[in-house]
What does this fold into?
Amino acid sequence: MIRAVLLVFVFSVSLAHGDVLYAKQGGRPIVSGVKVVDRSGGKVTYLDKALKKRSFPDSMIGRVEVRRCDIDVYQDRFAKAEDAPAVMALAAWAHEKGFHKEVIHALHERALDLDPENEAANLALGRVRYDGAWMTPAQRDARKAEEEAAVMRAKGLVRYKDEWVTPEDKRNLEKGLRKYKGRWMTEEQIKAEQGFVKYEGRWVKKDTLEVLRLTDRAKKETGLGDRLHLVQSDHYAVLGDLAEAQLATLDKTMERLFAEWVRLFPDAAQSDILEGKHRLYAFRKNGPYRKLIRVRFDRQKAEEGWSAAFLKSEQRRMKLRMRETSFWDVQPRIVSAHVLMPDPFEGLKAHCVHFGANILATRYERLRFPTWWLNEGIAYYFEKKVAGAIQTYSADTGGAGRYADQGPVAADQANPWLDASKWNDLLLGLVRGGRDPKLDRMKTKNLFEAKNRLTAKDLAKSLSVVTFLIRDDPKTFAAFFRDAKLGGSRDPVEREVSAVLKHYSSYAKIEQRWRAYALNGFHLVR
It folds into this structure.
């Protein structure tokens, strides 16, 4: 053990000016730059630069070499320092020579004892000058507090916790009341004024109450119980049995969609376009999805008192939805629902964005459907921009889809239009051959009538034309779409024709400019 201690000192020693202690074993220096003050009682005692006495067993020390050192100089100068400047000069020297901070601090205090007004000593000790006197920061703060208290008491105020209040206010505060909008109220009254309500023992905003109730109701309606989770943000409430991290990803993606929509249509930020929140359901499999469709159908039928003809129409629509894996509604509530299996999560995310854009396009300015080519073109544009993936769905692909960054999910992989990443190349071939779909015909097509349904080629061109118009002049496109929604006619085709004439002269003019864009490698021609 003694040998280990000895080795530590041997390797850490610094041969500064001063006494040097050499080890008996090996003759190496143990410590230097110190001042030996005593060698009796079986030990060697010395002072270090903290002016602390330390010692080694005499048996470890072979010899002591006595030299004049900084400690000698310090002691000489300290004995002669009779005023504050001399002591402060000694402190500066001691700092330069590596004396311990406790020694230097003691010198600062010594200088202050000699001259309480010495600025350098006061500042070195962290003191401040206030109202003509040096003091510690704590003393200054206490004096300020005393001065403030005197002023407040002169005004007739009294102390309540950390505040100065009137005696009447103190009585109200002690009763648990708080002042809100100039009136003293209970916590419950303030919460009510702020738009909060009590829900299951906690305060929630009124505009989130419906979502919270929906969560409880959805647990029953989908049969998921506690397996159903909710993630919500400013504009979306995402419910389902996916992992909460996946639901959170969907929620963030949908908020990015809303932000991009507002970027293109800035006036949408000032309106309640989603009537509170868009309720988005995302399920792993078909069971909860189909159960939700059935419950919604039964509830709406009971609440709205459908006619026999309308009931028959809704029954057909319900059966169609049962065969699919997603749907969206804008009335009576804004809802979309999606099933993950067998698609990958990225595909589900793209589909959610697509339907979210459909809903925004339908709800923008007023509840009206634009033409289907325009609605789908906008939905594909935002799907690509926000989710980075495209899912196609049309009659001539048999309802099959493909995501741009995933493998094909259709059995018939021979159809090149299944791959959205090839759309531009395929469109360019049609343009060069003069065989691309014409907007003037596309404007009357939809997604439901077998003989008048938008094909994959139509949808690809819808995306390309909308992308071109937005890239070319986003403000003109926004004005065009606004007029296509707000026009006087109830017919979306008639509204769109008027908006085209107003902003683009004609469909032929759009076609001409878009073809130049396509032939230029889908880059704007300037």
